[in-house]
Amino acid sequence: MAFREKLQAWRYNAIPDHLIGEILTKRWTDNAIPFLALVITVAAFGSAIPGFFKPYSLQESTRQLGEFSLVVTGLTVVMLGGGIDLSVGSIFALATFASVATFFIFEAPVWVCLLAAIATGVACGAINGYLIGFLRLRAFLTTLVTFIIGRALFDILVVQYGAATQMSFASSDLWDFIGDGTLFGFSMPVLTAIVFALITHIALTRSRPGWHVQAVGGSRRSAHNAGIRVRRIVFMTYIFSGFCAGVSGFLMATRLSSAGPGTGNGLEILALTAAVVGGNSLGGGRGSVAKGIMGAVIVLVMTNGLIRLGFGTGTNQMVLGIMLAFAVTIDIRWLKNRHKVLNEIYVAPVYLKMGKAESAEPGSGSAYALNNKLSSARHIGLGELEGPEDVILDRNDNLYCGTRHGEIVRFFAPDYKRSEVFAHVGGFPLGLAFDKDENLISCVGAMGLYKISPDREVTRLSAETRRSLTSIVDDARMRDPNDLDIAPDGKIYFTDSTKRYDAHEWMLDSIENRGTGRLLVYDPKDGSTKTLLDGYRYTNGVCIAHDGQSLYFSESWRSRIHRYWIAGPKAGTVECVIKDMPGYTDNINRASDGTYWMAWLGMRTPSFDLSLRHPDMRKRMTRRLPQDDWLFPNINTGGIVKFDDNGKIIQTMGDLTGQNHPMVTSMREHKGKLFIGGILNNRIGLFDIEGADPTWTGMTSYWGEKA
Amino acid sequence: MSFLKNLNQESIVLAITIAIFALASLMLPGFFTANNLVAIVRSVSVLGILALGMAMIIIGRGIDLSMVAIMAMSVACYLQMLGSGMGEGTALLLTLAGVIAMGLINGILVAYADVPAIFVTLASSSFVFGFVRSQLITTDAVPVPTAHWVEILGGLRFFSVPVEVFIFAGLAFATFLFLRYSKWGRYVYYAGDNPEAARNSGMPVRPMMVLRYVISALIAFIAGVLTAASLHSINTRIVNSNLLYDIVLITVIGGIGLSGGKGGVRNVLFGAALIGIMLNAMTIIDIPLLYQNLIKAGILLGAIIVDGILNPRDEQTAQQGDI
Questions:
Q1: Considering CB atoms only, which of A84, A144, A314 is closest to B134?
Q2: pLDDT tens sequence across A497-528
Q3: What is the pLDDT of residue B317?
Q4: In this model, does residue B193 exceed pLDDT 80?
Q5: Do A325 and B316 touch (CB under 8 A)?
Q6: With contact defined as beta carbons under 8 Å apart, do A37 and A274 qualify?
Q7: What is the mean pLDDT of residues B256-276?
Q8: CB distance from B127 to chain A under 8 Å?
Q9: Contact A149 B126 (CB under 8 A)
Q10: Domains along chain A with CATH numbers
Q11: Phi and psi (nearest 5°) for A409?
Q12: Which of B168, B171, B146, B144 is nearest to B75 (CA)?
């Protein structure tokens, strides 16, 4: 048994399984499969074809590659915007013909030929774009038809004027240079393709129109509702595709100096296969220029390689068909199941042996023994509230709490019957605290640290800290800011419970049990945020000690309370004050007698403690069972504990009836009463404390009497 | 105005067909003769048969771009096997097995792997052509062996009308009965109109989809046999021709919406009539084939634009990734 545990502890704590999931959340992992395919294809054909890697051979094969990747780049942009362009083959052919005719029949200068090709491409693209973008026709069928029309036009033109282009004696050094020459060892098509790819990549990832294209492809409806001119963006993508095909056709014209019936034949299926094999998603939203180029290289090397290896007619189509079907199927399946795979792999539990807790059983005689005191709690705002995680009172005895809907609700003293929405912040406001100037500071779940001034103005104070050096997923952003407190010098100390999950996924964090909770400090003087401590299992409540020299914070999934010194000789050090409580620790707040109240958000159970020693079991559980069957800490029954600066437990309260106020995540003492918040509750509890100082308030305890 | 409101694609096409027919009968010598009318019907029967299969797929919200490849390559393969001395039964069985296998692969990828039909069938078209051309047959055109039943079929006539016309009529009637009066036929419409709802109400949407692709592959094979019968050989280059677009043209122009759930055999017949009459008239006027392609594609574009204007897609309800 002991050996098994040691083995598990080593296996699950030393091997960083969680990194796999984090790497998979990265968008660039999509490129891994096409890149592997690229390497394999080039290696296979490179070794099978003698002289494949010789400079001259490379230069010749890359000329065609340059033209081809231009077309694919254009198609990639169209696909990113959620469309498809099958007419690239005939646009390419028409542009080639336009250049050839301009050069040989009209004997125009080379730049006019380029212009003619581009004009042809853009005009065809504009027709496609108008039909698909503005008339909202189906992209596939429409471009299929424009492809046939373009092809038919090209065939007619070639039959009529083909001979005339052959008879001409027009020649130009520039024309020949573009077709045959090299610059720094690169041919013109390759240079053009590289320049185009770079510009397109930068435009797509770093410019407003590029983002709009991605937005339209990602979710057309959302883009439309967000005010993006969807139709114009779609229109522009087809123009761009036509433009690329036009330039590519010009390069082809200079290379071969002719346009014949075979020009651009089958280019559309080649380009489509390349774009999809590279990993660009059908229907838009996911893709990049790099993917398109990778696909272009794979497809071209493969088809050219098959020809050079001497396979007969039809082999190319067969291989292309298989590649297209395979790539599309994988693409669709991956897109459909990516989040499932990620969900399965992402949760990577670790081993933990929780210390044995003292009993909390009623009448057990231990300091933690629960009683039934909270069952006498009265309630405020019953049924009006959802999720008052924390509560706080101001100098005029008004009561504030956050709600699940992102609002701060204020109940008016003295009877707390009347309420109003004090401010709408968004997110899920959790911990609350007043600063010296009576600004309400809140840790807003999924958003950050916010300040609400007395005249209800909401300001963001902090949403990120410095990124840690070893992080894979950027951990600068706060995912689950939970509770805060303010030191006498005005610095705000607050917790961010986990780096791995969002606030509402707290149960996954508890199952994984990996220490990623942080203690952070925000300095209002310079607006900076620093990480003080890292690696705790769900940091939660924070409370500045009565002397202002240290703070207490709770570590929920280990049921511990730590003390961090912010001043004095021990400044910057941390010590564990209370270990192995029988409940999961939550918010901590000051009590009138110089001690501290602390909430248990739920009670530990032997079964979950045992499961923490079996990470393999928890891993299987998250993979194979539906969420309703998971084992994770209950947060329906907790209690309130009072402890002093020595870590001694003074009092424990609970609600054994389970009806009135069993669920506690926070409590505030105010003028002899205890106001109780609970993240799953629809009310705020109100409880009279025996023997408490009836004049003590949090505001005076922190900031003294009002000046 | 109420007349304009009731105007749909079907009635427009019908009106245009009648107009062209009347015009051609008056203007073109030799158009309105029994022989020419039979020739018109004959010229569109193979196309029409293919369009029946395509219509069934499109009504069920799909598309089959592999029909022409399956049609040409299956028959080429069959004739090649006969030519190399294989027995009649074995050759036919092997070919049918191959045809059904391709239909199954198409259907399973579309229905169960959720891959868009256009890509599946585009890929399978390329694959079927490439595989048969490179692995199974040696030349572009494969002749029908002499005195074989396919050759005899080509010469068969009843009341001096070629047999493929009767086969087209028979298949059209069978498809009509299936779509209109059988339970599974009605299901095709429901699945095409709203696949999710059809599936939720318990219809076997996915197996039916597979079945439709198998049927369209078999129909393609029948059309291939008829083509070989009338030409005494099958030329595999037909795969790279515009035949496929003609099939889509006939199907769509008659008023079968590409988004599925609409139309029937009647629309296919109207589409076939329009295209048959037009092609015949253009041939009589002596318009070159290249220009005929241009005109046909232009008409198809017009049909799609009209379809797009009559059934506009809305930004709020359009489906993501529906290309």
A1: A314
A2: 999 998 888 999 999 999 999 999 999 999 99
A3: 63
A4: yes
A5: no
A6: no
A7: 85
A8: yes
A9: no
A10: 19-341 (1.10.3470), 373-463+477-703 (2.120.10.30)
A11: -105, 140
A12: B144
